[in-house]
Write a structure and sequence with these properties.
By secondary structure, the chain is an alpha+beta fold. The chain is built from twelve helices and six strands. Strand 5 and strand 6 form a beta hairpin.
Length: about 300
Amino acid sequence: MNDATDTFNRLRPRLQGIAYRMLGSSAEAEEVVQDAWLRWHEADQDHLENTEAWLVSVTTRLAIDRLRTAKIQREHYVGTWLPEPLLSDSPVSPEQMLERVDDVSVAFLALLERLAPEARAAYLLREVFDADYGEVAEALGKTEPACRQLVHRAKVQLQDQRPRYTVARETQLRLLRGFADAAVRGEFAALKTMLADDAQLIGDGGGKVPSFGVPLVGGQRIAQLYLATSLRYPNLVRFEVVVLNGQWGLLRFIDGALESAQSLETDGERIVRIHAQRNPDKLARIAQALGRDLNVTSQPPQTS
C-alpha cells in the first residue's frame, strides 16, 4: 500500500493539472483526483501494464463525466462563467512563466469552454500534456484516427481566439503596476491611455455579487468604471500584484476585504482584456490563503 500511495502521490500533480484544466475549478479537480485515488485503491495494480497511463485515463474519463454535468449547470449560470483563479505562493521564473502562460491562463481556460468535453480532453492531453495519440486514444476509449480528428477540430475552433501576443514578464508587470496605481488614484486619463480602444472587461459574479452579464467593451467605458469605483470608495481601494494562473495579475481589496481577482492581457503596450473574478465562491481559496475576508457586498458603479 505504501508503494501504491507513493506512486499515486508522484503522479498527483499531473492528474490535478489535467482535472483543473478540464473543469476550471480547483475544488472539482480535487474531487476528481480523489475519485481516481479510490479507483486506484480498488484496482488490481499488479496487472497494470502502465500505471501512469491507467491513472491518466481514469482521471480524464472522470473529468469528462463531471464536465458534462457542469456544462448543463453552466447553461443556467447567472452572467458570464469564468474559471476559478489559482494563486501561486511566489513569482515563478521567466522560463516557467513562458511555459505556463498559454496552458493554464484564465483566458485560455475560458476559451476552452467552447469545446465539447471529449474534444477538450483530447486537445489538452495532446497539446498541453504531450501525450501521443495512442495515449489519447486509450484515455478516451476511441481510435487514434478519431482522436486526431478531435484534436484537429479543437485547434480550428480555438485558433482565432488564442492570445496573439507574447509579452515579456517585466513588461506585463510594469503595465499592471501602472494600471493599479492609476486606478487607486482615480487618474482617468492614465487609465484610458493604458487601455486599448476596443478593450474588454469580462466579469463573473455568479449571481452572488453584481457583475456584467456581457463583456464591457471600450477602453473609455472601462476606465470610467475603475474611476467610479475609486470615487465611490475613497481611500478604501487597494491592489496587490500577484501571480494568478502562471501570469501576473491583480487582487483588488475594498476596505481590506478581497473583492476580485483580475487577470489582464496586454499586447505589450496597452491592456486588451480583463477577466475579473468576483464570485465569492471562486475567491474563497485565495482569501483563505491570504488570511483575508471576502467582500460580498461592494458593487462597482455601472457605466453607460
